[in-house]
Write a structure and sequence with these properties.
This protein is mainly alpha-helical. Helices cover 50% and strands 7% of the residues. The strands form 4 sheets. The chain has a 3-stranded antiparallel sheet. A hairpin with a 3-residue loop joins strand 1 and strand 2. Helix 14 runs antiparallel to helix 15. It starts with a helix and ends with a helix. About 6% of the residues have low confidence.
């Protein structure tokens, strides 16, 4: 309630400054009061530090105001606004930071430090999180019977209801199964512990001296491993991101990644799909290698050959290539249709500062011949804008040549 009151007070101060005569909420106007408040919130600063407030605080202020106005309308307050004034589109979207995965070297060094740790239960728990991608809360909720052997498909880890209230099965390799066996040996045996969510007695996998292993204990062990490895501090959730990184880089499909991470929407998993350096790098190198092998159109006058996708014949004429083409004074430009024509193609011919003379008439005539051929090529391919560009160039060349011949 205190937080709600503080956020509504910001709106009250805005109203006092923007419209001192306003004496009832029923008189609120979308344009005069709400939209000006939205603009003020976007540039608001914190009262204590003077620093701009974050997107989260901006959202909270606008959501709080919207809910308050909706509530008093539902409660039929006499001075409630007659219509809705705050809409979903008014709420600023939070930035979606990319998952923070561990670099390969740091991942390896932390793994080695955990393997060498004397705190076997805690270290093995973190290694299991790295091997399965479970959240730290899901890791603590694992029970002794979490491993399921399914004929024909191997061992699977049953992950209990977690952050998104989704239960799932994650495949286990032999190393992960060995980790769980090791944890089962080093854990403290004892009576079942009351499950905090269901209230029923449960044999949790991670127990120490009769109690469940805490979040902080696992975080402290990971901090110790980072210090021993000589790398910056990491969080348990980064182990999950790193696991997902390895899956994406290995070519794991989006559907499988969603199932194993327990995501309920593709948008959550797509954050990984647009992230990882090695995946992007591999695609870049594959495409680059393919582009380098698709060459061999000889340039006229002994110039170096140019790469042209889709052309394999060494005898092809550059004007016949299935690309957007421009004849330049010293050669020619070739671009794919997806790139569109270059904004600087033939810019000199249209420039007021462009000057030519009788000595250049053969060059202009050759350029006009090529441009006529390029116009016919563009029209045949249905490239309307490209054909129009060539027509404008023809008109300009004709004008330049006429002026030169008359002088």
């Amino acid at each position: 309630m205190e937080g709600i009151a503080i956020r509504l007070a910001h709106f009250g101060r805005h109203l006092a400054a923007a419209d001192p005569g306003l004496d009832t909420l029923a008189g609120l106007d979308r344009q005069r009061h709400i939209e000006t408040y939205l603009a003020a919130t976007a540039v608001a600063t914190a009262l204590r530090s003077g620093q701009p407030i974050g997107a989260g605080e901006q959202r909270n202020r606008i959501i709080t105001l919207g809910r308050f106005l909706a509530d008093i309308a539902e409660w039929e307050w006499p001075d409630a606004p007659a219509r809705r004034l705050v809409f979903t589109r008014d709420i600023p979207k939070l930035p979606r930071p990319l998952p923070r995965y561990l670099p390969a070297d740091a991942d390896r060094l932390i793994g080695e430090a955990l393997e060498a740790s004397p705190n076997r239960l805690f270290a093995d728990a973190l290694l299991l999180a790295r091997a399965t991608g479970v959240r730290i809360g899901e890791l603590r909720d694992l029970e002794l019977d979490c491993v399921h052997e399914i004929p024909g498909t191997g061992a699977w880890l049953k992950v209990p209801l977690g952050k998104l209230k989704s239960e799932r099965m994650v495949p286990l390799d032999d190393e992960a199964v060995a980790l769980i066996d090791r944890i089962a040996v080093t854990r403290s045996p004892g009576r079942p512990v009351k499950h905090p969510k269901t209230g029923r007695p449960a044999d949790f996998l991670l127990t120490h001296f009769g109690k469940r292993v805490s979040d902080q204990t696992l975080r402290d062990e990971l901090a110790r491993a980072c210090q021993a490895a000589g790398v910056p501090d990491a969080t348990p959730h980064q182990l999950r991101h790193t696991w997902a990184t390895a899956l994406v880089n290995a070519g794991c499909s989006l559907q499988a990644l969603m199932a194993m991470l327990g995501h309920v929407s593709a948008a959550m998993s797509l954050r990984y799909a647009r992230l990882f350096d090695s995946t992007v790098r591999a695609e870049y190198e594959r495409a680059l290698a393919q582009a380098k092998t698709t060459l061999t159109i000889p340039a006229p006058n002994g110039q170096p050959a140019l790469p042209v996708t889709g052309i394999t014949s060494g005898n092809a004429d550059w004007k016949d290539t299935p690309l957007i083409k421009s004849r330049l004074s010293g050669g020619y430009c070739l671009r794919t249709a997806a790139q569109g024509s270059c904004a600087y193609a033939n810019i000199c011919e249209h420039c007021p500062s462009f000057r030519t003379g009788a000595a250049f008439l053969p060059v202009l005539a050759a350029q006009r011949t090529d441009t006529q051929a390029l116009l016919a090529d563009a029209e045949a391919r249905g490239w309307g804008e490209e054909a129009a560009r060539h027509r404008r160039l023809l008109e300009r060349l004709d004008q330049r040549m006429a002026q030169t011949e008359a002088s």
